[in-house]
Amino acid sequence: MSMADRSRAPSPPDLVLASRSASRRAMLDGAGVAYTARPADVDEAAMKIAMAGEEPETIAQALADAKALAIAGDAGDALVLGSDSLVQCGGRLFDKPESREQAAEHLRWFSGRTMELHSGAALVQHKAVKWRHAALARLHVRELSDDFIAAYLDSEWPDVGACVGVFMIEGPGVQLFESVDGDYFCILGMPLFPVLSALRRFGALRS
């Protein structure tokens, strides 16, 4: 390719992360991905109510789509990445705890059960969903004593209040589990390997 041809080659699309999640930002930072972050204004609670009865992975994917679409109108030619996670355990769907007391109740419910963490991701460009992916991780929670739950929240609250499963796997939250099945990045909150593959496909990363 000549210098003139290279000068006419299209620039790779910018990437906008439609999230305020520190964990998702840290994943992209660690992978060396250039992006800007803009929190999406999405009424997640209303969407979950409207989608009651749907499969958890369907809800997580719809929320990921909605977050990206909420930003896409002002993003020009940029790719917008939306992602969301949903926890199901013992037949219940869980939101982020609203208080320390609710966090303790969630942990007592998780104790001795298997937590299913559904993570969805979507790429939107020009107000159209160009790519989406859903992933599942299963986390086997050990039996948690009340003393452990109290000490854990003494250490980790309020930081884990921003986490739907009341844990950060990269910190003391790993002590909640006997074992996990699934991708580590999915547990962190976004299926990173499929996201990176999609970004290469759309020219936002070198292939």
Describe, in plain words, how this protein is organized in 3D:
The chain is α/β, with parallel strands linked by helices. It has one domain: Maf protein (Alpha-Beta Complex). The protein has helices at residues 3-8, 22-30, 44-50, 56-72, 100-110, 146-156, 184-188, 192-201, and strands at 15-17, 36-37, 79-89, 92-94, 114-125, 128-141, 177-181. Strands 1, 2, 3, 4, 5, 6 and 7 form a seven-stranded mixed β-sheet that branches. A hairpin with a 2-residue loop joins strand 5 (114-125) and strand 6. The longest helix is centred in the N-terminal third of the chain and has 17 residues, at 56-72. The model is unreliable at 1-7 (pLDDT under 50).
Quick one: CATH class?
Alpha Beta
Helical proportion?
A: 25-40%
**Class from secondary-structure proportions:** alpha/beta
Low-confidence stretches: 1-7
Count all strands and give the number: 7
Question: What's the multimeric state?
Answer: single chain
Distance between the termini: 17 Å
Can you tell me the CATH architecture? Answer: Alpha-Beta Complex
Fold-level CATH name:
Maf protein
Pattern of helices and strands: HEHEHHEEHEEHEHH
Q: β content, as a range? A: 15-25%
Q: If you average the pLDDT, what whole number results? A: 93
Shape designation: globular
Q: Could you say how many structural domains there are in total? A: 1
Rg over C-alpha atoms, rounded to the nearest angstrom? 19 Å
Number of helices in the DSSP assignment: 8
